[in-house]
Amino acid sequence: MIAIGSNHAGYNLKEEIKKYLDEKQIEYKDFGVGENEIIDYPEIAKKISKAVQTKECKTGILVSKTGLGMSIVANKFKGIKCVPCYDEYTAKYAKKYHNSNIIALGEDGLNISTAICILRMWLATEYEGERKDELNEIDEIEKENMK
Length: 147
Fold this sequence. Notes:
By secondary structure, the chain is of the alpha/beta class. The chain is built from six helices and five strands. The protein has one domain: Ribose 5-phosphate Isomerase B, Chain: A. Strands 2-1-3-5-4 form a five-stranded parallel β-sheet, with helices on both faces.
């Protein structure tokens, strides 16, 4: 199950991503926003991050104007590795090297086709496991600083 959500600035791209997920029969849960609904991005990022953190959903997709602010909020949650991605290369390595569990996309900087290619790459890529020492270091930093 994938958690998906956007603020008003990412609504249109979120809806196109949902069409893709429906087409591929990939299960998701939409955490908002609805059409013409205005909610600040931290609220949506918080909902998605909690859903992934509690394992209600396996992964998450955040969509806003740039994806940057949402990724900052998501990374405030213990166990969340959210990466803003702008192309297939960053999507591949977000998962392959860093085992990201949330991706952030920016509607203003991506056309629908590119966003779908990014998402497809991220979903298809497996964590290679070779960088466990580095990820363990990140986990230790998280334990030290997120109390």
